[in-house]
Design a protein that fits this description.
Alpha-Beta Plaits; 15 strands; 284 residues; four-stranded antiparallel sheet; single chain; alpha/beta
């Protein structure tokens, strides 16, 4: 979408998201707790009113109109560089693919354009980690646009599982996997990060602080060889480090992007750290 294009967002409260919603101009349906957000590329008062007539369990609670560029963090110049990756979010500016580490990402209305500080930190962390280690199996929780899962596949992961609780994120990430030709490597699925999780050599966890507090206290937090953690403010850095499982270690000093840290954590099965040899971080 063009950054100047308008988004029309309708906030509904109540009800359970219908399995299918077919309305002209509908970009996506975003469930969030007890609310459901309908994203349109055109004004849709009549369509929403008709939907409410047939779904009385919902009620309209708010309405927003804003530029897509204000909703989604987009780069002025593309492609742009983060760590070892060249990223394009708009096909008209993608140019020629710059090697295997070119990411073609259409975030739609989901999180994960590549510019947010936590996403940038995680991409830098992946870049550094794969310089020294080759995690074959990767789990990306809260995948959003799928950018971290795709990046891991581009770096050499052979099995990647991308999980999100939001159906719109799942469809967005799956489309981006096809766009980057990694759909055979990355399995995108709907799932709750609070449930049973598959094993992996590397866990990518770019989720809000409240979830990190809960997850890091669970026994399975120590089951992953390496973990990339982000999604919290720098003022909470010491707290997050204190929550790490016993025996874990930081592989590098925290990577800070605009006051938001990213950690590379090694648990017991991770035998060799990214900074065991050579400089701690290459100059990109």
């Amino acid at each position: 979408m063009n950054p100047q294009q308008l988004l029309y967002i309708y906030e509904l409260k109540g009800g359970v998201r219908p399995p299918a919603v077919d309305m002209k101009g509908l970009l996506g349906v975003w469930p969030e707790g007890e609310y459901t957000y309908l994203f349109f590329s055109l004004p849709a008062e009549a369509a929403v009113a008709a939907f409410l007539d047939t779904h009385p369990e919902f009620r309209l609670t708010d309405y927003y109109r804003l530029r897509y560029g204000d909703w989604q963090d987009l780069a002025e110049g593309e492609p742009f560089q983060v760590g070892r990756f060249t990223i394009s979010t708009r096909p008209d500016r993608s140019g020629e693919a710059a090697g295997d580490n070119h990411l073609l990402i259409d975030p739609g209305v989901m999180f994960g354009s590549g510019l947010h500080p936590t996403t940038r930190g995680c991409l830098r962390a992946l870049s550094l980690l794969y310089l020294r280690l080759r995690p074959a199996r990767v789990l990306d929780l809260g995948t959003g646009s799928g950018i971290l899962a795709i990046a891991a596949a581009k770096l050499g992961a052979t099995e990647v599982e991308a999980v999100d609780i939001n159906p719109l994120a799942v469809s967005t990430a799956a489309a981006n996997c096809r766009r980057n030709k990694v759909e055979e490597t990355v399995r995108v699925r709907l799932g709750d990060a609070r449930g049973d999780l598959p094993s992996a050599d590397l866990l990518c966890l770019n989720i809000h602080l409240d979830f990190l507090r809960t997850f890091l206290s669970r026994p399975e937090a120590r089951a992953y060889g390496c973990v990339i953690l982000s999604g919290f403010l720098q003022k909470h850095l010491e707290e997050v480090i204190s929550l790490l499982p016993g025996g874990s270690r930081l592989e590098l000093p925290p990577l800070i992007e605009n006051g938001l840290p990213t950690l590379i954590v090694a648990n017991h099965p991770c035998e060799r750290g990214v900074n065991d040899h050579g400089p701690t971080e290459p100059s990109f």
